[in-house]
Design goal:
By secondary structure, the chain is mainly alpha-helical. It has one domain. 45% of the residues lie in helices and 5% in strands. Helix 1 crosses helix 4 and helix 10 crosses helix 11. The two termini are 34 Å apart.
């Protein structure tokens, strides 16, 4: 993957950095099991168009404004946006990384579903924004003791280096440009009337609160998949588990980039209060 100027979407950064790490070495959850191929139907459309009662909707905390209307050509419709978004990704990353790491159908909907899941349980494989990459999950065994192999972190270094080289202001500018598509996909996911950028900020804050784990991380293998032996780790969200699995140095680099993105996405008053 290129390590030079990396243009893309803030959502792509969040979903691909963490989704890539997760799907290369899933130690728990639905892991390596393949799912049926996507159909042409939307990923999740509840059919609710009236939204929640107005009095129950929280106030928007981090409004972005309408960047799309001020930047020339109109945006494609959500259902017709895959070609434009994939072309932008290829221009930024090259054909090979995009071919390897980005499922080209329903890109926006997949990204929204993946991001929305990062503080809870993982979404089904068929909904994720990146394909599974078959590769053995590295562990160390000493008798009956199983620990996470620190060498797992090495496989993410090139990806994290590319992320660090990304121009954060450009990432956020492009995200703002395409924001109406992300908002529509979020409402179709089952959150009519709620503001997706507020959700992105909440997800970033959740990921930034991930603890750093020093020392060996013990695992168990009750059946096929590995689980964290420490129940407090196993109970953590899929997003926090991803960061822990990256290794301390890689996780710190991801947190630094997420902090930069948050500063630009959040309202000025909120950034000054941090």
């Amino acid at each position: 993957m290129k390590t030079g100027h990396w243009i893309g979407l803030a959502a792509v950064l969040i979903a691909l950095v963490l989704g890539y790490a997760w799907l290369r070495s899933p130690p728990s959850g639905d892991g390596d099991y393949a799912a049926p191929p996507m159909t042409e139907a939307p990923l999740a459309d509840t059919g609710e168009t009236d939204g929640l009662p107005e009095q129950s909707l929280p106030a928007v905390e981090h409004p972005l404004g309408d960047e799309s209307s001020a930047q020339g050509a109109p945006l494609p419709a959500l259902d017709d946006s895959d070609a434009a978004l994939r072309a932008a990704a290829v221009e930024a990353l090259g054909e090979q990384p995009v071919e390897a790491f980005l499922i080209p159908q329903q890109i926006v909907r997949r990204l929204v579903a993946t991001i929305n899941s990062l503080d809870a349980e993982p979404v089904p494989m068929r909904v994720r924004s990146v394909p599974p990459i078959p590769e053995a999950f590295a562990v160390q065994r000493s008798g009956k003791r199983i620990t996470l192999d620190p060498a797992n972190a090495d496989r993410y270094e090139a990806f994290v280096s590319a992320m660090q080289a990304a121009d954060t202001a450009t990432l956020v500018a492009v995200y703002r440009r395409y924001y109406p598509l992300f908002q529509k996909a979020y409402e179709q996911l089952g959150f009519p009337g709620l503001y997706f950028n507020d959700r992105v900020i909440a997800i970033i804050d959740h990921l930034l609160s991930t603890p750093q784990i020093d020392g060996p991380i013990e695992l168990t293998q009750p059946k096929v998949m590995f689980l964290y032996a420490d129940p407090t780790l196993e109970r953590r969200s899929c997003g926090q588990k991803l960061l822990i699995r990256l290794g301390a140095d890689n996780a710190a680099a991801v947190k630094d980039k997420l902090s930069e993105i948050r500063t630009l996405l959040a309202r000025a008053r909120d950034a000054s209060a941090d």
